[in-house]
Amino acid sequence: MSIEYSVSVHNIGGNFGTWMKDEELAGSGTKVWVMHGTNNNLLDEYNSEYDFQTNNLNRTITLPYSCEGTGHTVYSNNFYCQVYASRYLGKYDLSTGMYTWVELPTLGQSLYDEYQWGYLNDVSGTAWGNGSFVDFEVDEYGLWVIHSDLSNNHNIIISRVDVNLVVIESFNTNFPKVDAGNAFMICGRLYVINSCIGEVTYIRYIYDTTDQTETNLLPTTIPFPSVQRSCSIGDTCPTYTNAFITGLDFAVAEKPDAVLYAWNCKYQEVYKPVFN
């Protein structure tokens, strides 16, 4: 596999955010949903990718709870996120407005249970609101939750869940969550990028849930060509960087031209995985 940069779709919002399509649908005419920041209860809906690019907002949904981090997703007409400052996973029906919470009682919430970008952004001594403790991902096998906890030494745990957030199976990896720049799922495999910062990074680690094998990769094996953007990270001690990927999701419904949606320094980008 290789990763290619495809296109910058838009430039909206701040350093942190998520842009999503329903991962059971496909095409540029599919609705786009956007959530800004790492502590928000407002979900913006656009009727198409073109409407998103031209700022033609259809509606803003006010959720009955705020969402933590940027690891959200839309799947089967439901919006999924971690309920802010809690160990609950939230499911919100985009048609009816009905919602449910399901507790993940062992969910880790320390600095070492965040992605690398959340850890680096933390300048206040508290983890709340900065990183993604929970990352929802969708692939050919369905809905996944990427998280960690103390029982697995803050290493990544991959849990496959059904649409009602009932855990079907879980896999413990040996990769520290805080060392992951970001991650995504394809065909039951977890792909971890080495760093969220800088225009040159790479796929550092792969865990295959089908046979429970893990592989550590060299920087030259699968480079990840993040686009050079200029932004500052942190409030009291800002760090300036050439890239800052705080959102990364596989758009499985776009197959055979499946892509990755990324949020990079205020830019919404598309990357294309190429399978040999």
TrEMBL record:
Record-given protein name: Uncharacterized protein
Entry superkingdom: Eukaryota
Chief site of localization: secreted
Subcellular location: Secreted
Keywords tagged on the record: Secreted
GO cellular component, one term: extracellular space
Pfam families in alphabetical order: OLF
Biological process according to GO: signal transduction
Keyword Secreted listed: yes
Lineage: Eukaryota, Metazoa, Spiralia, Lophotrochozoa, Annelida
